[in-house]
Amino acid sequence: MFTRRDLLKTSAAGAALVATGGLAAPAIAQARKIKLGYVSPQTGPLAAFGEADTFVTLNFLETAKQMGLDYEVVVKDSQSNPNRAAEVAKELIVDDEVNLVLVSSTPETTNPVSTTCEAEEMPCISTVAPWQPWFIGQQGNPSDPASWKPFNFAYHFFWGLEDIIAVFTGMWGQVGTNKKVGGLFPNDGDGNAWGDTVVGFPPVLEKMGYSLTDPGRFQNLTDDFSAQINAFKQAQSDIITGVVIPPDLTTFWNQARQQGLKPKVASIGKALLFPQTVESLGDAGHNLSTEVWWTPSHPFKSSLTGETSKQVADAFTASTGRPWTQPIGFAHALFELAVDVMNRAEDIGEGEAVAKAIAATKLDTLVGPIAWSSDKLPPFAQKNVAKTPLVGGQWRLKSGGGYDLVVVENALEPKIPLGGKMEALA
Fold this sequence. Notes:
The structure is a single chain. A six-stranded parallel sheet has the order 2-1-3-4-5-13. Strands 7-6-8-9 form a four-stranded parallel sheet, sandwiched between helices. It has a three-stranded antiparallel sheet with strand order 10-14-15. It has two domains: 4-159 and 297-386, 3-Layer(aba) Sandwich (Rossmann fold); 162-292 and 390-409, 3-Layer(aba) Sandwich (Rossmann fold). Strand 8, helix 10 and strand 9 (265-270) form a beta-alpha-beta unit. The protein is α/β, with parallel strands linked by helices. The longest helix is centred in the C-terminal third of the chain and has 18 residues, at 327-344. Helix content is 36%, strand content 18%.
């Protein structure tokens, strides 16, 4: 296919020849304004992921200005809809003519944006989705590993399913249970990956002596979880796990309590990342547990501002009046990477040059060190995926109201300090 990028290359080459009487002029690309595109779910059921976007973007632009850098950021809302995410990615590439696309938050946003960028030869950096649903979910045949191919323009940084399984089972091992697990896996990118019998939870749990009850996939925004609750009760599940959107966790947990489901542990991905989800449950959120990718106690600093994780979190609360949330750190890191990449790219207007700079990244960021081509990943994913640290946490009611997220499991990343031990649900 003759892509828009090919057309731009041809046009630019022709213009250079005309301007210099037949000889191409040397590039002085870094003197131009750099235009970044940023896509995330700022409305819809995944809106909690985008809560900090305005804060992070405005702070980045102010920091860039103070550093004497000329940046523009074009922000697009995916509206928590994969089709919309693909549409706005195309707008950024064709209409806004950005130099680099940044995208965050769940496969429903990261995948269509990354796929669009790859097809259009637009460099893209993605985050906040486990790497398996991001990489495998974009393959032509996800069920055939032999057919999987690396990407040339799309790059991703986050943790993987192997990490969250280790973190969750590490938390469960601190509490005496019957090792019977109930799985809540929706019919979306995350749910299908977590429940996958090859790369997801089932094979690992079986090897570790856990039995998993999986009632099957359900649609997001379900209003009746009676079938799942009855299945978990019948199996006598001491542990509930899964990956659900915030509204579904609220519905499920309230119905579970009403119907007498009383597990000893509930470790839920995605929904329990956010204080507002736990607060909506009242006292019933006490000791619910989740994965933890970033907190104010993480021992990392921003490569842009030198701020610590705590300073960034405190600045968000001071600016918005809201508690810090985990996506703050990763949204900030996207812009750290963008500046580092654009500073090193030989030509910011050439997609291949920017992609080459992304691949060569070695940067200490607010969420930890980021570098692609690590041997900590399977060979097929090494080119396009960079891993970040993961620990586990539990929400604890504070005496004056509200909740604290306490780190209770750090075996994968001992540098991140523990705040307490795992406790059983009341």
